[in-house]
Give the backbone structure.
Amino acid sequence: MAIELSSQSKAVIARELVEGAMRQFGKQGVEEGAEVLTRQEELLVRYGDDVVKAIQKVGPRSIPLLEGAAAEGFEQSARLLAKHGDEAVWVVGNQSRRALAAKLGDEAAEAMIKHTEIAEPILEMAGRSAVAALQSVSTRSGRQIAMLAKDGDLVKIGRTPELMAMIAKFGDRGMDFVWKNKGALLVGTTLVTFLANPDPFIDGTSNLASIVAESALAPIAKEIGNQTNWTFTIIALAIAFSAYLLIKSRYKPARRAC
């Protein structure tokens, strides 16, 4: 939002900011100060406090950064620099990241600032549904999401928006469960059951092995009901039971939180 200043006040503020930047940033401030002074006043009038704070935190280089960001949204870039300082330069100084932030909002930009390069492909693939998930998890869990996306497992598991919403709710605990049980979540209706009520699975009071077994046994039960092909039924029961034991041993339920 613009601020109302007299011409004299604007000139004073601009000069004070440049002089302060020159003192704070040394040689860079001296070399760039004169050029910044000629462009700074207009930006201050148009965009107000965020520009002031951006210059104070990042120094004279914030002006060309902001001018370069005009196509994707000057105001957003000014807000990010004002709030996060040098950490935001990674986003504001790159056109594709600015465009992604402009499309998905300030929260997406903050997710990129938090997780750096791993966040960009996740946001490009999953869009808004991934923003809250990335904000709620640690960098370790963020790397796990990135690996699932890169390996194609995230697409294979499916129902990405709902899965991201679950991770956003449970944070690192939710992502840890998905990471440890990603194989089981690929089986039949297991993912549907888990997403419908994830709490008991994450708390450790239920396990996915029983869901996988039920999914495998469903067509067998139908065959039994039809009383046909008993040889197939007996063999299938043995295979299903073996699969249950294997999955149960491989995908252990998450431990109950202390």
Summary: Residues 193 and 211 are 8 Å apart (CA to CA). The first helix runs from residue 7 to 25. The radius of gyration is 27 Å.
